[in-house]
Amino acid sequence: MIHEHYCGLDVHQKTVVACAVTPDGQRICSFGTTMCELRALADWLAAQGLTQVAMESIGVFWKLVYYYYFVAIVPYWLRA
Fold first, then answer.
1. pTM
2. 23 secondary structure, DSSP code
3. How many Å apart are CA 21 and CA 32, to the nearest integer?
4. I want to staple 9 with a disulfide (CB 3.0 to 4.6 A). Which of 45, 55, 63, 65 is the partner?
């Protein structure tokens, strides 16, 4: 299976760098790790039409992004 819309997230203590790849090209954007900025990241991911997201992090910094994305965002998308 080949995915045409995917994103890699590099999660740090104070930033999340997202690299989205679509048939239109590659886009890189940085976000903070506050709840407001994570919401902006989720909105950006949705706007890119992504179907797959992979995350890389050292330490425990990934947990907030993971729980926010899968607890708050994915159920919202499924209801929409």
1. 0.81
2. T
3. 21
4. 55
What tokens appear for 18 in the block? 């997202």
Looking at the structure of the chain, the number of domains it has is 1
DSSP per-residue letters across 28-61: EEEEESSHHHHHHHHHHHHHTT-SEEEEEESTTT
Give the domain CATH number at 55.
3.30.420
Nearest to 16 by CA among 74, 48, 60, 56: 56
- Give dist(CA 75, CA 80) in Å, integer: 9
Q: Which domain holds residue 21?
A: 6-79
